[in-house]
Design brief:
Helix content: 40-55%
Strand content: under 5%
Structural class: mainly alpha
Number of helices: 9
Mean pLDDT: 87
Shape: globular
């Protein structure tokens, strides 16, 4: 019976954590939460002057020297790095390292905020927006995991 109670406690803790990651009890959406965060923290490198993904891949180092990453300045662009076709890319880049074997944060985690508290708060918004926070690529995802990526507009 103790295992069943422990399992239920874990489920309840997960629900509480998910609920805590919501802003004021409302669903996290691109249009009301993520776009503002993106514009504040990411648009200077991933905005309108940034290259499309395939162009970025052709000259990754050249664009990095210019301070540019792949374009993510619209809902469609950003959502494609969570769900499809580049599943998990946004998660791998923004993750704080608590989901990795080596504990190493993603290369964009540091840009989520000026301090750890702000980075964690903003990471929580991204996690709530994405739904299923996975570092897997499309070919590694189960149907259930892919269906759990919500990225609401």
């Amino acid at each position: 019976m103790q295992n069943k109670d422990a399992g239920m406690a874990l489920v309840c803790a997960g629900i509480l954590l998910f609920t805590a990651a919501r802003a004021g009890g409302e669903d996290i959406r691109y249009s009301t939460h993520i776009k503002k965060l993106f514009d504040d923290r990411c648009v200077s490198c991933h905005g309108k002057d940034a290259p499309e993904h395939d162009d970025f891949k052709k000259d990754r180092e050249g664009f990095k020297k210019k301070g540019l990453g792949p374009k993510m300045d619209s809902y469609a662009h950003l959502a494609s790095y969570a769900g499809w076709p580049d599943s998990g890319a946004i998660m791998r880049r923004l993750d704080d390292g608590k989901n990795t074997k080596d504990g190493k944060a993603g290369n964009m985690y540091e840009y989520l905020g000026a301090n750890e508290e702000e980075r964690q708060r903003n990471l929580g918004l991204f996690k709530a927006w994405v739904g299923v926070w996975t570092l897997k690529r499309f070919s590694e995802l189960t149907r259930e995991e892919l269906a759990g990526i919500t990225v609401k507009y």
